[in-house]
Amino acid sequence: MSYRILVVEDEPAMAQGLKDNLEIEGYRVAVFPDGEQGLRAALTEHPDLILLDVMLPKMSGIDVCKTLRSRGFANPILMLTARGQEMDRVVGLETGADDYIVKPFSLRELLARIHARLRREKRSGEDLRAYAFNGVHIDFERYTANRGDEALQLSPREFDLLRYLIRNRGRTVSREELLDAVWGLNDYPVTRTVDNHVGKLRQKVDTSPQPKHILTVHRVGYKFVD
Q1: CATH homologous superfamily of domain 4-124?
Q2: Could you tell me if residue 209 is left (phi over 0), alpha (psi between -120 and 50 degrees) or otherwise beta?
Q3: How many CB atoms lie within 10 A of CB 102?
Q4: What pLDDT is recorded for position 48?
């Protein structure tokens, strides 16, 4: 299978270098120089993965990412930036990015992250296609969720988070493990992102005053029980 990658990067040399090296690896690549063009291409072409610069003309990478996630784009988004401050990384991740790569970066590292992310996406789609609990029906293939006749509006990240928790139901999963498995980050010290996403997910699928299915294990992480 030849994966399609969308590169949204306004530095011509960087964009061309990424395109050339990705094509050598066998990927099909399209390049766009600003956020508005990148957003339109992503929505119409639905690439398997997006490399998205943060600082872009016309529309920032953060806004592009946020818009894509709000419109149901579920495939991986890797943010590229020259800035390395922790807050920038938190903002990028909380708007729906899967990973955050700081320039200048090693081409080998970038290719390894792309390969790992695409492999993870392929593997996650091969099991746990649907699940139901307490009147909530989840279709992980179509990214739809319903409680009776009511459609629940879950983000792609919330689907991935719920799928991982359900796949590991009955077992306590640490915040660090969730960052690694769902976000693809194994060396990221801030776990507030996990707590925020779990909180929003609970409001949609576990609405009892005292959560019954997505439980907090104090100082450790979370556990799904059914």
Answers
A1: Response regulator (3.40.50.2300)
A2: alpha
A3: 14
A4: 86
